[in-house]
Each structure stands twice: as structure tokens, then as C-alpha cells.
Amino acid sequence: MSRRMSESASLKSFDSIPTMADVEATLGCVDMNQRYELVSGRLVSFAEVGHPCGHPVFCFLGLGCMRYYSIILEDLAFKHSLRIYCIDRPGVGMSQPAEPESWTPLRMAEIVEEMANGFNIQKFSLMGHSCGAIYAMACALRLKSRVVGTVWLMSPWVHLTLAKRMKWIKHVPTTLLKSQSTASLLYKSLSVGAKEPLSKSDPNILSYDREKLVKAMLQDNLAESLEGANNDLMVCLELYHSFGFSYKDVTLPVHVFWGTKDAVISREAVDWMEQRLPQCTLSVIDGGTHGLLWRADVVSKIFKGIASSWKLAEFERALTQRWSIKQLGLRKNQSFRGSTYSAGLQQAIQTSNIYEAQSTLYQSQQIFDDPDRF
């Protein structure tokens, strides 16, 4: 049974750029400040944005970023009929802390599994930004059978052996790292992301004044907890232990977006992912920085791809109910996913071309509806 504890307000929407008071009221609303009690008794805070009846997507944010960040996805998520769940990791926001020595990305997968079970979510999609990619990939590994379609990553963090620009930090004493101002680090992250240009073709990534939003999110971060940001840092730098798995272990399709002006993740790192992961597609964003989560064009492509994956899953389920394996003309133990038309759908989804995917779906449906086909 779902155990949610929320505030009394409701999510607001605006027809024009809101005032600072509007922004603060939105960040304080019910959907942005929910909590879930795990079986262990630990409380985890989370936010829900997008379409109230949309397909579920678990979104994992970057270093120390709490659930409020997800508000920038509200409009596009609603447009594509998606419901975004953004969970605060232990020690972030209102989520109770965990010992950094024992905290691993794979434990986040356990939390996601428990919450999905509690909300009766059988299937879901995954997306991650920056160090949130580690947790998205952990879920893709542990919860593979429940993931719909591709795992979508933006500016993904990688093992330090590959993150050439950050190797030096491995030699900085842990006590010194912990003493640095997490608030300053977070503010820099938010500010860099907020400077990403709006897309003229799809500007609905954010209807808020970005400077006001950054200020409000930072204030609310400070008002709650930033302890988990240090946990994230320890995970990223693998100071206590490794991730506990390799990205190469993930067999689901993965689509990576990386900007040419990313000052954190190198091109070599994402090239390694494209070459070594079983199924990986790399999209290079010319001029993009590390803050691709703020890019309407990038997020729109991801949401279109996720929506297409759900259409394919629903189509396959309908086919399974309507036709037997023999009628479909497939070999024993071969699914529709291995057919020629499924290959076209998968290609359309990988390229985020929802119109091509819909066209392929329509053509496939016509063939299966043809009585002379079999």
C-alpha cells in the first residue's frame, strides 16, 4: 500500500513568467513535497510532475540536486503524457540520511523497486543526468524486466578511470573534500545549467524565470538537507568503494546525450560508453554544456523516445492478446521484437523520431490486419 505524506497545496501552472512568490509557492506544493515510508522505517522524499495519469518515469538528478529540479520538466512531461518521479537520495531534501560508507547506487535500485511496488507501478522508464546516470544504470541492471524501452542519459558520469578531467580529485583527502562548501558547488551546478539556451522549436522546458528558480531551489536546499550531496560526491569519486557494477553489465538499450562544451565529462568517456556498452547510441549536442537537463530540445527528444517506447510496448501487448505465435509467422521462442517491423520501430525510437515510429506501427498494424497475410 502506498504511504504518502504530503503538504496541503497543489501544483500551480502559469500563463506568464511568475513572480518569486509564485516560484516559492510552486516548490512548496503537494506534488513537490511528498514522502514515502520504506519498510525499514526510513522516510524518502520525492516529487511528481507531468501528466497525473501518464506513463511512469523515474528521473535521477545530478550531484546533490533535490526533487525541486524536476519542476523544469513539468510542461514537456505533461505534453508527452508522462509522469516523472524524482526521488531525493538519502541525506538530500527530506530523505533521511544513510552512512556514506555503506551507501551504493545498487541500494537506490532497491528503494525504487520498493516504491514502485508500493505505488503499484509494474513497468517504468528511466532517465538520468550527470551523476544521476549512475543510479539510473543501477536500476537498469537490477530491475531490467520492469524497464520499458531505452535508458536515457544526459552528460552521464562515468568511472574515474574514464573521467580524465576529474582524475586528479581522487588524490584529494576525503576530509578536505567534505569541508568544501556543498552549497557553492550546487549553486555553480544550478547556474551553469540555467544558462543553457532555450529552444525556439520547443520552448516549454521552463515557464519560470531561471534566476528566480535557481535562487529558490538553492534556498530550499539549504533549508532542508545537503548531507546527501557529500554522499553523492563519495559515490562519484568511488572513495569508499566502487559503483558495485560496470556500465558494460547493462544490456538494455542506452541513449547518451553529451554537449561539446561539457567541462566535466570528456568526449573520450562517452565514446567509451558508445563502444563498450552492448546497445548504446550517442547524440552529440553542439555547444551543449554539462547542464543538458535544461535544454528543451534534448528533453523533448528524450520524452518523445520514452512515449514511443510505451506505444511499442502497448502494441506488442495488444498483438500478444490478438494473435498466436503461429499466426504471426514467427519461429518458436521468437517474439515480435525480433521481426522486421519491430526493428524499424526500435530504430525510430533510438532516433527519437516519434512520427516514424507511429508510421511503422501503422504499417505493422495494417499487415497484421490483412486476412491474406497468413
From TrEMBL:
Residues 74-293 form the Serine aminopeptidase S33 domain. Pfam families: Hydrolase_4. PANTHER family: AB HYDROLASE-1 DOMAIN-CONTAINING PROTEIN (PTHR43433:SF10), HYDROLASE, ALPHA/BETA FOLD FAMILY PROTEIN (PTHR43433). This is Serine aminopeptidase S33 domain-containing protein.
